[in-house]
Specification:
142 residues, alpha+beta, Ribosomal Protein L30, Chain: A, globular
Length: 142
């Protein structure tokens, strides 16, 4: 499962990228959304890669994320974090698991990497594909 975190704002951004961010439930900076590992999701992520950080989230981080930051899809129901985690691991969507598909995160403790939010991760910045290191960023933002 991929986790995508919006890093940058939308000033002077093309309408196609703005629409892509909205479709991915990344409406403001420091929002996180979860996506299945398939070609459609990866295509959408690659379209907005210059405004988000993304990577594969592991089970431990996913459990902690759901327990701390998840909100129920229906506000009248109570959230069951264990059940939601199991449903996501089976391959169901976040809505089917009973949670909203976005998480409001705090800015990372200690800040982003030394080169800032306009540089790709491979060059020392914060954007783009982080692989397994996305888990460290998520923990810094919780």
């Amino acid at each position: 499962m991929y986790a995508t975190i919006r890093i940058r704002g939308t000033v002077n951004v093309s309408p196609k990228i703005k629409k892509g961010l909205i479709m991915m439930n990344l409406r403001r900076a420091n929002n996180l959304s979860l996506w299945k590992e398939d070609a459609n999701s990866l295509g959408m992520i690659n379209k907005v890669k210059d405004y988000v950080a993304f990577g594969k989230v592991n089970d431990e981080t996913l459990k902690e994320l759901i327990a701390k930051k998840a909100r129920p899809a229906n506000p009248l129901e109570k959230l069951d974090a264990k059940k939601a985690f199991e449903e996501l691991k089976k391959g169901k969507s976040a809505k089917e698991a009973g949670i909203k598909n976005f998480f409001t995160m705090a800015p990372p403790a200690g800040g982003f990497e030394r080169k800032g939010i306009k540089v790709p991760f491979k060059l020392g910045g914060a954007l783009g594909n982080r692989g397994e290191k996305i888990n460290e960023l998520i923990k810094k933002m919780m």
